[in-house]
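Page 37, continued from 36.
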């Protein structure tokens, strides 16, 4: 029996295991990947290099990643002569509280949108999505006005609430899509056995949603960890509450910018975030892919 010739599209979309790529094509793919990695990693290496340079060589054009006269003086200054540890601690407190509140609110709200039909359900989902289309500067004015009237400016609580308001809508969409992939039969079987709805949610749905919960936690954490504009508006006048993003702005004086201190602080705040991402990488891919389609 003569085989039917395949179209170009069919050959292109064949599984990789059954498609034979030419050596030249594989070489191009690997070169493209290597180039992408270099473009992504090189700026980070340059920041590390600047943080290790002596003060009189900060503007050196040398391409060496580790300078021959490397020093840790910038790290010592940031840690012991500045308020950097206080700023980092403030950031940890604020971002952790934001992430925990975001997970709790998004997990319960997304479950309601996924499992129950109630008046305003569809418009509510559209409204949550539409809030993500507004630029962040547009949201700062109403948030600041409300916080001022409630006496929440220059407080931890006010900044945490502001961060939660901006991160929860998108988190609800992520978790709602993931909950839709969990068979309802699992909960129905538990309800038949006499388990309450809350207990079924706690014992069945949440354990199965660990990847999506990790995504929501990381999204809320990173949104607060790297934010500058909202923190500048909410707590700029209270130096003791500054986050690290506001604090490193203090390294820029009227006549000069301390690039060595900037770089050293950037490296130190990136290390815990990188460790968090590496630890949770096993949940990231499954959380993003399974929550994007309904199974």
């Amino acid at each position: 029996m003569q085989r039917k010739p395949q179209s170009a599209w069919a050959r292109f979309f064949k599984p990789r295991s059954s498609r034979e790529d030419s050596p030249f094509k594989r070489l191009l793919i690997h070169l493209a990947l290597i180039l992408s990695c270099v473009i992504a990693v090189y700026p980070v290496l340059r920041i590390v290099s600047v943080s290790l340079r002596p003060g009189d060589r900060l503007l050196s054009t040398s391409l060496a990643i580790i300078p021959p006269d490397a020093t840790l003086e910038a790290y010592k200054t940031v840690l012991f002569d500045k308020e950097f540890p206080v700023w980092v601690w403030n950031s940890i407190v604020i971002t952790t509280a934001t992430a925990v509140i975001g997970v709790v609110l998004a997990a319960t709200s997304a479950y309601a949108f996924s499992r129950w039909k109630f008046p305003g359900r569809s418009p509510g989902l559209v409204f949550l999505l539409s809030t993500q289309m507004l630029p962040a500067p547009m949201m700062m004015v109403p948030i600041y006005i409300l916080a001022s009237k409630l006496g929440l400016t220059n407080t931890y609580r006010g900044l945490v609430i502001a961060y939660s308001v901006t991160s929860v809508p998108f988190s609800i969409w992520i978790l709602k899509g993931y909950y839709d992939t969990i068979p309802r039969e699992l909960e129905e079987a538990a309800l038949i056995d006499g388990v309450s709805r809350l207990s079924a949610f706690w014992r069945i749905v949440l354990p199965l949603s660990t990847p999506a919960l990790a995504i929501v936690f990381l999204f809320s954490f990173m949104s607060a960890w790297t934010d500058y504009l909202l923190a500048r508006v909410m707590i700029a006048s209270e130096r003791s509450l500054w986050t690290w993003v506001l604090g490193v702005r203090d390294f820029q004086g009227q006549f000069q910018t301390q690039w060595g201190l900037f770089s050293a602080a950037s490296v130190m705040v990136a290390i815990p975030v990188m460790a968090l991402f590496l630890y949770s990488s096993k949940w990231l891919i499954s959380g993003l892919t399974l929550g994007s389609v309904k199974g």
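Residues 73 and 90 are 24 Å apart (CA to CA). Flag for discussion at group meeting. The first helix runs from residue 8 to 12.
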